Amino acid sequence: CHAGKLYLHTASNSVLCLDVKTGKELWKRDLLAELKKSGPPYGPAASPLVVNGAVVLPIGGQDAGSVLAFDAATGKTVWEGGTAAPGYGSPITAKLANSEQLLVFGMGELLGFTRKEAGWEKAWDYEFRAGEGNQSTPAVLDKDTLIITNEQETHALRVSAQDGKWKVAPVWKSDVCGRISSPHVFEGRVYLHGLGELHVLAGDSGKEVGKLELNGEYCSLVRLGAVLLALVPAYFFVVLPMYR
Fold first, then answer.
1. Percent of the chain's residues with pLDDT above 90
2. Sheet of strand 77-81, all strands in order from the earlier edge strand to the far edge
3. Is residue 241 scored above 90 in pLDDT?
4. HSE on the CB side for 104, CA within 13 Å?
5. Four-CA torsion 145, 181, 39, 112, nearest 10 degrees
6. Are 188 and 162 in contact (CB under 8 A)?
7. Rounded to whole angstroms, how far apart are CA atoms 147 and 141?
């Protein structure tokens, strides 16, 4: 939801812009008809990101794709970059290594874009498989470090630039994973849900410093200040004080 408009990425691989007050359709892009591709194996799952007047999404099919940006007012394509098949995680922006960056998951890699005139330019990528089910949205740990997770492991990535060249390297790796639940960061701790447990990792080392049984194979976590809300399969919210 942005500036009185609601942007939707549907399971049938369409992108819609609706008026928030009336629900009137303002524009629509049928990507299935345009590209003849229905998205990744389990269908599109990335939420649209509105940034600098454009709606950004990973698009394409199971073997190839790109990051596409639509003009937020008209739906027209304003820029396109990368060649990766689309992943499931939602794109985000973050300031890393003193640079504004756009972060988008492909099916087999995390893509980093930097600002270039009216659009973005691919600066780096980091190989990271989506696994059988999903790839969650990245989380920012500090000014140059990201947390990414999938169904097998969790990585802390440090992003740096030297002599005009970008470098992305793992600071630590952990076999504690968040599966399809996006990680959350609070006061130097990383929070993940995987296979019925909430895991707490130290951000500087990846060492597990806390764990709590939380029923359900899958779980959606939302952070509100110092509280985590957890939606589990029994369809109720569990409110958890953040680990200190």
1. 60
2. 49-51, 54-60, 65-71, 77-81
3. no
4. 30
5. 0
6. no
7. 6
